[in-house]
Every structure is written in structure tokens, then in C-alpha cells.
Amino acid sequence: xxxxxxxxxxxxxGLKQELVKMGAFVESMLDRSVRALEQHDVNxxxxxxADDDVVDDLDLAIEQHCMRxxxxxxxxxxxxxxxGTVMKVIADVERVGDYCVDIAKVALxxxxxxxxxxxxxxxxxxVVVGDMLRGALQALVHEDLERVRQVVEQDDEVDRLWYGxxxxxxxxxxxxxxxxxxxVQLVLVARYLERIADHVVNVVERxxxxxxxxxxxLSSHHVITPHPEDAx
Amino acid sequence: xxxxxxxxxxSCVTEPHSDQPVIETEKLNLFYGDxxxxxxVSLSVAPCRITALIGPSxxxxxxxxxxxxxxxxxxxxxxxxxxxxxxxxxxxxPGADLVALRKRVGMVxxxxxxxxxxxxxxxxxxxxxxxxxxxxELDELVERCLASVFLWDDLKSQLRSSALDLSLEQQxxxxxxxxxxxxxxxxxxxxxxxxxxxxxxxxLEDLMTELRRQYTIVIxxxxxxxxxxxSQDCGFMLLGDLIEFDKTEKIFENPRDPRTDxxxxxxxx
Lengths: 232, 269
Description:
Chain A contains 6 helices and no strands.
């Protein structure tokens, strides 16, 4: 006889919704931190830094919810993987929030200095990484493995942008030593965005595990060679 | 030692990595009259592991357990087809020695069933009947078996007291000690904790884990958490079919069959 566990099912759905809420909040922090950098917006940068406390509170609340479900409901099989996935994923999402704060701090440090060149690749990276985060959350809610695959492919694009930007900024610094102070800060921001993308890949790895029970290092299937000419 | 038609199981202590199955069933069917309680069950029980059988009431798990030492023979109108081998020998073959089989494959029941005798005589009973030990040997046997189930220290000063005065947990431990006295290879346990409180259940689960070092254990349990805690291999049964048999962590983390998934997630039964 098939039967349902309504209360528990609702708890699991609620747990996923809490994670989506946390992820959407961090996605907004990401968007605002990159715009604050681009637009020299001090207020926006300060708000992103303040929002870190909200993310930390959400992280703790969701972890406590997971622990309560484990203790009281003893989930098994797919339910167990769901709770385990949420517990792992909140750590990655919280870390993404920390990187947004790092970007906002760079924005603050450069608020009064005009850029030596227009920012193009960093906002582009920000858009791709934001889309990855949104896609990862959708993949989680719908257990959508096609979306998982797309996110992993987008990480390749972020890696290409990162290495391209790094090369470009090194070249500029070699030619124009007066740009070094600012260029180093921009390298850091690009690196933060690249790391955010890696954390989002961690998230979709867990989504794939939740859906299939198989835990795989998806990023290793898409290794990007930083310097193709060195590959041989 | 009297002769026995059954081989001796590999010792779990001296051969911990032996993977020769201790029990195998092959296309096992069992009928109670017209009702088919087991359907084409093929199962392989590895040595020195705890194998749990889970499934909703009436799925056939206790029936399967009882085929492994032919306890179902006692039920009228039972018909068994297929093959059950213990230590490589067909236990349903004509002329199979049932006494030897049940010495090798002992059974622990839901309710502890000590004899209305003293603690000492419960453990010594089989050795006296089979005349395999006497005098100091018997004392040594009783001490060794009670120590194996962690009762010796508590009961050594009251060995002549009635076994019926013990707590339920102690009675169940005593029944296991009584089995150990005939030096079995396999212990079958049919919901051995169903009458015990949580603390006593924990105690018996710890004992099972200790006994696994020397014995192969097959346990039927309604308690999925217990199966998850104590067993290394696990089979899920439904309506007489063995739906899935795998490592316990696989059954509870990522089962192959959606019916197993429904059951372990509490959606079935």
C-alpha cells in the first residue's frame, strides 16, 4: 500500500524554498557588488557588506532545520540525499556571499579613482556567474540535470574570461606601471568571480547527487588549460 | 565430536576476508497450501556479516528466514521448491540431517524463550543431551558462552537461579548463549528486539556487532533504523519477492528499485 508523508514532504519542500531564498539573496548581492564596482557606488557597496549578516543568519537557520529533520524524521534514500545536499550547498552559497563582500570592499577602495579603462569583462563575468547561480537554484528545485550540464559549461566560459582578463591585465601592468595598484584590485575581483563560479559548480554537483545518487566531480570533466601553448 | 554432514564454516577470525557464501538460496519457492509466500528467491549470505531482511508485514521475510534451518517443516501443508544450501550442502536434499543443520544454524526468536531451568542448565542443556561436555568442561562451556553474550560478570554468582527471573534483555542474551553452546556457524534472528525497550535494544545490537566477528548473522526486522545500524547487507522483500539485495548503505542511500526507495523513505507498507 502506497502512502504519503505529507508533513515531512512539506518540510522538505520548505527546506528547498529556504535555500532558494538564501540563493536569490546572494545572487542579488553578487549583482549589486559588481554594479557598485562598475558605477563607483559607495552606498551600494556598503549595503552588500552589511547584507553578509543576513546570509550568515540564513545559513545557520537552514542548517538547524536540516539537523532537526535528521533527528526527528530519519530521512532515507532520496530524502536523505536531499537533506545532505542542502547542508552542503548552504556552505557554498554562504561562501559566495563572502566573495560578494570582498568585491564590495574592492569597490569601496576604488570609489574615488577613475578606471584606467572601461570595465567590460568583469561585468560580463558577473552576468555569467549570476546566471550560473540562478540556474543552479532552478536545477535544485526541479532536479533538472540538463540545467546542471549548462551550469558546468558556463563555468568553462567563466574560466576562459578569467584567464583572458588575467593575461590582459598583466600586459597592461607591464606596459603601464602606474596602473598596477588598480589592476591588481581588478585581478582580485576577477579571481573572486571565478571562485564563485567554482562554488556554483559544487552546488550543481550536489544537485546531480541528490537526483541520481551518484557523486561526481563535474568540473574535472571540463578541464580548461590555462595556457594552451604549454599543454604539450 | 560426533560427525556431521555439514562442513565447518570458515572462521571469521582467522579468515576475515573469506567471501565464500555461507548460505545460498536458488529460485526458492515456498507455498502454504495454495498461497505462494516466497517467489523465486535467490540470495547469497556472506560470512561474518550481518544480513538484514526488511519489508512490510506479510512480505515473506520471516518465512525466508525459517527456510534457512527448515523451521517451516513444522508447519502443515508447506511445500518448498528450489535449492537452499548451507556451507555448500543442499539442506532440503533427501536424508539431510536436520539435527546437524539446526546445530549449525541456530534461531533466536521474537520473544526470549529460556527453558524453565536455571541459568546454568539453560546453557548446559545441549551439551548434556549430546554428551559433548561434562564436569569442568561443562563449567568452562557455560562461562565461555555467557561471557560471549556479556552476561558472565553479572550472573556468575547466581548461575543456579531460575532463568525466568532475568530481565527480557538478559533472557534474550541467555537464549543466544544457549545457541552458542552448540557451536553454530549461523545465527538467524527473527525480530530479536521486538519485546525489548530502547536501551535493551541498543545492548543487543552491540552484541550482534560483537558476534559478527565469529558468526554469520541473518536478522529479520521491522525496524528499518535497526537494519541500517547493524547490518552490512540488506534485502528488501515485497509480496514474496526479494526485490533488491545489496550493501546496506546502498539500500538506504540510493536503492536501485523504486519500490525499495518508497519503502525505506516510509512511503510504503
